[in-house]
Amino acid sequence: MSINQTFNKEAESLQQGDTRAAEVIFDHFAGPIHSFFMARTRHRETAQDLTQEVFLKVIKSIGQFDRKSGNFTAWIWQIARNALIDFFRLKKPSYLADMSEEGNNIPEERSTVQDTAYFREIMNIIETFPQEDQELFEMHFIADVSYADLSRITGKSETALRVAIHRFRKKLQDRFHD
């Protein structure tokens, strides 16, 4: 059974009121979704709030999930993506004020100073790229969203996404070695 089939079944169980299914879904998706929000907001509390918001929306709207229309993985990532868009649309002014003080807390879990510096340098370079490139990077590399799921979320073909990510890697390598 594929991972998509597994989570489609868990979603259907959740629709029937199975709280164990909610735990399974949360355990699998919470970490990658939180990492995605951390990379985008660079603020731990905001990432936690957005992650919580996604799971509240999942619970609230699970009745709207239709297995025939798509898979649960793409559905939950679309909710996460929309939550981030809403966050930036509604809260960007206060976020920017907090960024200089709070924005350096992403790599706390990193094991070495060298890793932290390397991570910050990469993130600083990535921030100069167009919004769409940043989102693809974070969803694919940080949150580990598959090409198939990215395709469902963005509406682009898997081939187009592979090309875009390949070009992104090349741009990142070129900028990193400047």
Share in helix: over 70%
Beta content: under 5%
CATH fold-level name = Rna Polymerase Sigma Factor, Chain: A
Class from helix and strand fractions: mainly alpha
Mean model confidence by pLDDT: 81
- Supply the number of structural domains: 1
User: Superfamily at the CATH H level?
Assistant: RNA polymerase sigma factor, region 2, helix turn helix motif
Account of the 3D structure:
By secondary structure, the chain is mainly α. It has a single domain, classed as Orthogonal Bundle (Rna Polymerase Sigma Factor, Chain: A), CATH 1.10.1740.10. Helices cover 78% and strands 0% of the residues. It contains eight helices and no strands. The protein has helices at 3-15, 19-41, 44-61, 72-102, 113-126, 131-142, 147-154, 158-176. Helix 1 (3-15) crosses helix 2, helix 2 crosses helix 6 (131-142) and helix 3 (44-61) packs antiparallel against helix 4 (72-102). The longest helix is centred in the middle third of the chain and has 31 residues, at 72-102.
